[in-house]
Structures are given as C-alpha cells and as structure tokens.
Amino acid sequence: MPVLALDLDGRVGSVRRARHATEQFFAELAAGAGPRFRDETRGDVLLVIAELVSNACRHAPGPCRLTVAPAADGTVEVAVEDTSRELLATASPPAGYGLVVVTGLCRGVHVLRMPQGKIVQATVVERRLW
Amino acid sequence: MSTPTALRTVMAPPAPATAGAAVHTAAPVPEEAAPVLDAEQRPTPEQIRRLGKSEARELSDALFRRLAVLEPETHAYGYVRGTIIELNMPLVRFVAAGFRHRAAEMDDILQVGTIGLIKAVDGYDPDRGVEFVTYALPTITGEIKRFFRDTSWPLRVPRSVQELYLMTARGSDRLEQRLGRLPTPEELADDLGLTREQVAAGLDAGRVYRCDSLDALHDDGTDDSGSALLNRLGDCDRNLDLVVFREAVRPLLRQLTDRERTVLLLRFWGDHTQSEIAERIGVSQMQVSRVLSATLARLRERVENGETGRRADG
C-alpha cells in the first residue's frame, strides 16, 4: 500500500501544501490500484491534516513531516512529526477546536515523544463509530 | 389554540436542564447593552453569551472578513476561527435539539454537530453573498445525519449490546493509550466494571458492525454533495423562521407572571395534561385552560406586533 510522506518547512503555506499533496495522493490511488475513499472520508482526512499541520506550525519551531497511510480496511492513518517535545494540551477557549476535530473524527489519537520532537498520529475511520 | 405544536417547538429549551432553572429563576437577568466589540479584540465567552442575535451575526461577519486575510499557520487564525465557532455554537444546539428523540447521547450529537459547524466555518465564503447561517445549518444537519447513518447497524443488534460495544470500544482505546498495547478482555472488564461475558458480547458486536464497513468501500459517491446540498437548502428556511420566532418569544416569556410561566413550562416542556397541571398547582382544570389560552393569545399577539420585550428593561 502506497504511503504519502511530505516534508514541510512549517511556515505559511504548509497547510495548503499538505492539503494539495494529500488530494493528489488520493486521486492517484483512485486512478491506480486503490483503495478509493468516499468524498466524506477524504474531506475528514483533509480536515484532520489541516488541524495537525497548523498545530505543528503554531506550536513547534522549524519543519514538520506529514505521513498519510491508507489501509485496505478503509481507515487512513495520518501522522505529523514536529520539533516540539511538548505534548498536546487542551488550549483555553476559543482555541483548541483542532483537538475537537481530531478526537471527533479519529480513532485512537496517539502522541509519541521522540528524541527531537514528537509524532501525533491519528486514524481516520471510513465509517464513524462514535 | 390552533397552533400548539408550533409554539411547543418554539419554546422547547435547548436542554432539559434549563427548563428547571427557568422555573426557579425569580428575577430575569436584565438585558444590558452589549459592550462594543470589534474583530480585532477577542471577546470573552461571557461577552459572547450576552450578545444579541444581530450583534453576534455582525461580529461573526467581521471575524470572517478577518479570517480571510489570515494564514492557517498563525495563532491569530486559530483564535479568530475559534471565536467564530463559539459565536455560532447556538446553531449546533438548535439543530441538535431536533435530534433529541433519537437514541443517542446528546453529547455525541453535539460533538458531531460541532464538527459540522467547523466544516461550515472552513468552507464558508462571505463573498458569495449567502449568510453564514444559511450555509451552516444544512452542513451541521448533514453531519449529524451522517453520524446516524454511520451508527446504524447492519444487523439487528439489541440496544444493550450496542451500548456494550460502544463501551468496550471506547474503553479499549483509552486503556491502549494507558498501557501502550491492546488490553486483554480481562483488563477491559476490570477497567469498565463489566463481566467478561459482557465484554465478550461487546467485542463480538464490533465484528458484526465492521462487516458493514467493508461494504462501504464499494459504495462510492452515492451521497455526493452537489445535489444533496441543494435538497438540504430547502429545509433551511423553515429552521430559520424557527430561530427567529424562538428569539422573538424568549424575552416575552420573561415578562409573564410566575404562574403563567409555570403553566406553559409544564404543558409544553413537561408534556403534562391540563388536569395534571391543575392538580400540581392547586387550581381547577378550567383555570389552567384559561391561563393557557390567554397567555398563548397574548404571546402570539406580541410576536405578531413585533414586540421584542426589551424596552421594558430600559
């Protein structure tokens, strides 16, 4: 199964680049060996990506790396690695809606602390279970 | 009383909890002039709650104009977007209230509704000349409907087992986070306070559920947004009227006497019969009937005359 890996500089334009590359990636999958995802699922994945990438750009200095890994069971695992070892915190309102989106649309949100930063990993499910 | 159903919908509270509170509130909170807010300044949640409908809309429009020139990678974007979301949260509660009778946790409905709102905020283009509310209501409704479609079961699974499934699935995710590996059924049972048999039933149900999920792969684009959105826009006007109507009635309700308010609450929120109300407040059923029809007639008249009820405070 193909995986998209994209290095971003963490500056303005990163979110746009991430979304574009992912859309293209989905289009290539659909045109090739698959899998094909519903419009809704693709929309959810793009939204989750936008949240995770913008979070990395806002809170971590320097570049970040996006990985998008679709699975045959209809789930899409999205991961963003950044340079901050600070774990995700629930921001005070009115910020913090990013986490609402990610926890709402994904199953199993994991944060892995790495020597030089962290990886936030979340799995978007084809069908919403809760 | 030719339109009790309409009034009933109009006066339904966003959540049952407020109904009780409203009955016991002795003095209504005076409506002060909302402080002047501009899009540059971040309003507090308290200020947001005190905004009138048109002020909230104006602020929301101003914030959309500001959002359009911000980049998503900035903190400012997060704050402005978050404020727009909070300002428009009443739309989610309004739409969610319509799904109250469905077998689902209100919190879940509110959560998916919020995601619908966030999608609407992201997708809204103020330059198209469509009001945000008009755009957002069908988006929120669509997201909640999708939630119900997605949580419908391919096989007839008893409600209790469905609940066990949700409990075990959620519990499993939580434990996995804590342990760093998948929990065993025993650990799951301990953690959730369930028997091993219950956990087994929950996990089995999950397998039933997933057989539908495979079907989903073959089903492409039947629910495309194009025509569906058009279909949904038709619904929206009726809902908007309700919002307006409800907002119009709300201040008028505060001007009623305690007894009038209590009778209305019991009849339309509590769903009690006139006789039950009569017994409860110690008057005859005829008196209840008179109070009801007089109060409703007066409310209707005031709404039709466009009275807002606000001038009584100033």
TrEMBL record, chain A:
UniProt xrefs under CDD domains: HATPase_RsbW-like
UniProt keyword Kinase, yes or no: yes
Keyword terms: Kinase, Serine/threonine-protein kinase, Transferase
Occurrences of domain Histidine kinase/HSP90-like ATPase (ranges): 15-123
InterPro entries from the UniProt entry: Anti-sigma-factor_SerPK, HATPase_C_sf, HATPase_dom
Stated name of the protein: Histidine kinase/HSP90-like ATPase domain-containing protein
Source species: Kitasatospora cystarginea
UniProtKB/TrEMBL annotation, chain B:
Composition-biased stretches (Basic and acidic residues): 39-52
Source species: Kitasatospora cystarginea
Ranges for region Disordered: 33-52
Domain RNA polymerase sigma-70: 108-121
Domain of life, source organism: Bacteria
PANTHER family (alphabetical): RNA POLYMERASE SIGMA-E FACTOR, SIGMA FACTOR F FLAGELLAR
Protein name: RNA polymerase sigma factor SigF
Keyword annotations: DNA-binding, Sigma factor, Transcription, Transcription regulation
